[in-house]
Amino acid sequence: MEWVILAFIGLIAAILGSIMGLGGGIIVVPALMLLGEYSEILNGITPQVAVGTSLLVMIFTGLSSTLAYLKQKKVDVQSGLIFFIGSGPGALFGVWLNKGMNVEVFLIAFGSFIVIVSFILMVRRYVKPIKMAKRGIKRSYQNLDGKMVMYGYHPFIAITIAFFVGMFSGLFGIGGGSLMVPAMILLFAFPPHLAVATSMFLVFLSAIVSSISHISLGNVDWYYAIALIPGAWIGGQVGAAINRRLTSDTVVLMLRIFLIIIGVRLIYQGLASL
């Protein structure tokens, strides 16, 4: 039964993660931590194992989504590689921070982080993108309506933001897209569909760096990973297909409500354990 539940979690997390560019770890990690209370197989799972396993699974979610988005010509590969200059070292730093964190502190910190992310998702549509700086990288993209949209960023600012995104990825096993997508839309004027697709490319690259570090530290449970990966691969493809055909307003609303519930639940669990 646990295998079925894990496969389903991998599928749903990847679908939502691919649609929103989140990576799916923001669902997988709390799901593993919460299931640890009720399942004999998952009993006693540590934050380190939950994060390490989630990041390994996100390699497949990210790769699956990226391949689908590349076919749709929505991935800004150059920008993704520039962002990775910051997110790669940030991911390693996050893994180091995660190493000494106990369960109670992790649950409270991660729960608070999830609530903050839900707030970001709530306000991002009401905030107009900041105008591009005169200096920096300027790019164009033809959106779904056939209109040419201009966006851009200063490399130093982008790499700095990406470093902190990578840090949260390595620390919480979330992929970092929950922060990078709003940043790309609000700060750099990325078209939403392009931001999501490029974020999944960055999630893929960052997850490789983070998961290798966690594997070397023994923080990956291969039993959980094998159960999660098939759903994650299929979900990445499905999410990219849904993103192409539908607006994400309803998904954002549902995801925001879900994140608030999970975040509050994790905070309560952490405080109760103190």
Give an overview of the whole structure:
The chain is mainly alpha-helical. It has one domain (2-273). Helices cover 73% and strands 4% of the residues. It has a two-stranded antiparallel ribbon. The two termini are 31 Å apart. The relative contact order is 0.25. The chain crosses the membrane at residues 7-29, 49-69, 81-99, 105-127, 148-165, 197-216, 222-243, 250-268.
- The helix-and-strand class reads mainly alpha
Instruction: Give the overall shape, derived from the CA principal axes.
Output: globular
**Helices and strands, in N-to-C order?**
HHHHHEEHHHHH
Give the strand tally: 2
Number of distinct helices: 10
How far is it from the N-terminal to the C-terminal residue, by CA? 31 Å
| Radius of gyration of CA atoms, rounded to a whole number | 17 Å
Low-confidence stretches: none
* Whole-number mean pLDDT: 81
Q: Characterize the biggest β-sheet.
A: 2 strands, antiparallel
Structurally, the number of domains stands at 1
The portion of residues forming beta strands comes to under 5%
- Indicate the percent of residues in helices: over 70%
Task: Give keywords.
globular, 10 helices, mainly alpha
Write the layout of secondary structure elements.
Blueprint: H1 2-20, H2 25-35, H3 47-71, H4 77-99, H5 103-123, E1 137-142, E2 148-153, H6 155-172, H7 177-186, H8 192-216, H9 222-245, H10 249-273
Antiparallel strand pairs: 1-2
Condensed summary:
The chain has about 270 residues and is mostly helical.
